[in-house]
């Protein structure tokens, strides 16, 4: 089995964040991602990678008689490519519709397991090419949870995922991959989800990421 190590090292932080303290940013991402994998334990090996634990490395600091600590997590390696690397021409319309429905259903499944979030980037979604079997049973795997929140009592409101997709806000993935959607999205969406009692426009309270740390 191949594992993937994800490091949270302030020295190599991409700096593309509204949080300017790189140490805080890395610890923030690490703690929230670990909490998410634990919350979504029933989904590990399905729509998210298997989680094999969190660790702390003690690394030497060149030129100093001191060490620094770097967090990491071990995950199941998912062979494949991100949606970002795929164009609409890589899939038939039927395949694109199937993949889009799986994305919506995946977010709804996570919501049912206590998370609120959204696909903040199409880099977060891997199209699994491990095997033909995986393509049938596990075609999409979500690999990053930086924008997710635990659904707990809090002062803010959130709308269940399918309702948010229906509104198609600017940050939603369906706009990011708009070149995939060469059909009447509204007609397709309502044909699939109309009458589904699980997606009634119910709002519930959630705890924001800032309150988790």
How would you sum up this structure, described in words?
It is a single chain. The protein is an alpha+beta fold. The protein has 2 domains: 3-76, no CATH class; 80-211. The protein is built from 6 helices and 10 strands. The chain has a 3-stranded antiparallel β-sheet, covered by helices on one side. β2 and β3 (67-76) form a beta hairpin. The longest helix is centred in the middle third of the chain and has 20 residues, at 93-112. It starts with a strand and ends in a 7-residue tail after the last strand. Mean pLDDT is 76; it is low at 153-157 and 200-213. This is Protein kinase domain-containing protein.
Regions with little confidence, pLDDT below 50 for 5+ residues: 153-157, 200-213
Count of separate DSSP helical elements:
6
Number of strands: 10
Distance from first to last alpha carbon: 33 Å
Largest sheet: 3 strands, antiparallel
Keywords:
213 residues, alpha+beta, 2 domains, three-stranded antiparallel sheet, 6 helices, elongated, Protein kinase domain-containing protein
Question: How would you summarize what this structure contains?
Answer:
This protein is an alpha+beta fold. Helix content is 30%, strand content 23%.
Topology (elements, then pairings):
Blueprint: E1 3-8, H1 22-39, E2 51-60, E3 67-76, E4 80-82, H2 93-112, E5 115-116, E6 125-128, H3 132-137, E7 140-142, E8 149-150, E9 156-159, H4 161-167, H5 173-176, H6 185-193, E10 203-206
Antiparallel strand pairs: 1-3, 2-3, 4-6, 5-8, 6-7, 9-10
Protein name: Protein kinase domain-containing protein
Organism: Trichophyton interdigitale
């Amino acid at each position: 089995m191949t594992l993937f190590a994800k490091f949270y090292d302030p020295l190599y932080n991409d700096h593309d964040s509204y949080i300017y303290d790189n140490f805080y940013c890395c610890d923030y991402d690490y703690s929230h991602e670990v909490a998410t994998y634990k919350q979504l334990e029933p989904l590990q090996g399905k729509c998210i990678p298997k989680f094999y634990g969190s660790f702390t490395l003690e690394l030497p600091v060149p030129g100093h008689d001191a060490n620094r600590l770097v967090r990491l997590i071990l995950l199941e390696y998912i062979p494949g490519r991100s949606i970002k690397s795929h164009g609409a021409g890589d899939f038939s319309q039927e395949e694109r519709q199937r993949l889009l429905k799986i994305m919506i259903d995946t977010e709804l499944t996570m919501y049912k397991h206590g998370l609120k979030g959204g696909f903040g980037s199409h880099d977060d979604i891997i199209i699994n090419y491990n095997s033909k079997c995986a393509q049938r049973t596990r075609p999409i795997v979500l690999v990053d949870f930086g924008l997710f929140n635990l659904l707990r009592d809090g002062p803010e409101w959130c709308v269940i995922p399918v309702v948010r997709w229906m509104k198609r806000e600017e940050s939603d993935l369906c706009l990011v991959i708009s070149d995939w959607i060469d059909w009447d999205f509204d007609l397709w969406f309502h044909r699939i989800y109309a009458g589904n009692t699980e997606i009634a426009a119910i709002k519930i309270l959630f705890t924001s990421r800032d309150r988790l740390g």
